[in-house]
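Collaborator request log, item 7. Partner lab (contact: R.S.) asked for a structural prediction of G-protein coupled receptors family 1 profile domain-containing protein to inform their binding assays.
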Amino acid sequence: MACEDLSLTFVRALGAICWTSGLLAIAENLTVILAVRYIRSLRPTARFFMASLAAAELLSGIIANLYFVRNYGRSENTFVKMETTVWFFTTTSVTYSLSNVAVDRFVAITSPLHYHDRMTLKRCLLMTAFPWFLAFMGVFTAHFIPFKHAAKIWMCGGIISVLIPFCIIAFCYFKIYKVTRSTFPARENITNAQQMAENRRQRKTACTFGIITGLFIALFMPSFLISMFPLATDVEIARVKCDGFERKIWLSVSVISYFSAVIDPWVYVIRMPDFRSALKEMCQRIRRILSLSLNDSQ
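Returned to partner:
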């Protein structure tokens, strides 16, 4: 059975939004990945987490938007199975990358004197690899488990890919909020003025990633609630995602849920002066390299 045909106007509008969102997500998050190394205010380990989050959002923008452009007319079994696979990969990689950032900020703010002992390079690399391992395991599971178990897969995915990382994020930011309402632990060999500046910087960085997490939740939640609707009402999951008006709603909120990949880089630009400086430094280096290449060719 094929999914119901959509109007040409809706298909063209959806395609335009997907292509625009996908191209912007690629350009913006690739820029973030390249600029991260120049952000001197971030510890080296924190750069891994920020780059991993940008990579997750870059792939989310590519895979999700390409999927919706190419597969909205498939049969219900194929459509739902492919949507489940895409959802597992994009959601898991982003949510656990966000939780890694939250954990890093939690350790940096609550235990600055022990940060380097707790966030070692080995632990950082393992934490960075974990979201991708879990995402690919989710893809494997969603692809090979029979279609009749789709509802159970979505229920397990909701717990593993959404509930668990959001509990980690909520715990970390709650603790960060409690600490930032008082004073940060004093660090050795710095003046009071330097300590106050460091406190403000850490507080602003934590707030920036908190905003990014909040935006992701706000954009993602409508899609998640609609995905959970069949599980709560015993409606077939294919009906919600393949039948008429319900399908238009599902496609619309799903596309909107991936807008965080486009918005987040702008949050970095607005909230992080060091990120703006890193972009300028990266552009200057690229300009110098191009200038040298042109001079050599002449």
